[in-house]
Amino acid sequence: MTNSTATVAILRLPRLPQLPTALQTVRCDPATLYRVSGHATDEPYFGRANTYRFDDPHPQVAARFGTCYLGASLAVALAETLLHDRNPIHNHFMVGLAVIQARFVIRLTGEMLILANLTGAALRKLGDHAGLSGTSSYATTKAWSAAIHAHPDAVDGMLYMSRHKNDETALVLFHRAAPKLAMASATPLSVHPDFGQVATQLGIRSAWP
Fold first, then answer.
1. Is residue 7 a part of any domain in this protein?
2. Which intervals hold domain RES (predicted)?
């Protein structure tokens, strides 16, 4: 076996997590979270499209649990949405003003959330590594999400490292968390007081006329 072959074998993501009887969890105040959305109403929205990293892969749409993605900061929420499918040009991301003006920063209020911890040592003990949030292949990540959703602990969602800003965390909430939550505010991204600073941090250009 060559070194490269051995490396691939070691780093391959396990199809399913090695779930313990009790999940390692963290508590999260929804008021600390950020969501960037194209809608100013009906948030938080839990989608069933089977499109994103931790969506339910069930073949029948009606049988899927919904998912809602958020960031621990505005920078994470922007990186995971506006920059998700963009490549930098000379170290900057060119984002049209119309795109910025069509987005809202959603803030939540509600009860404390209980999340499965998929970061650091907690993730490693489940048999996985940073590839869970870094891989561009979603078959395994969706299977992990479905397995954790089905766990008897009935957590509200999962905490993981952001792929697009990998020094901070992101979250996916399962639809069963919806009764705990309400939208506190929906601020147009273009006038959000922190947008200018975060845009500079992330290298977003063409944000203003």
1. no
2. 49-184
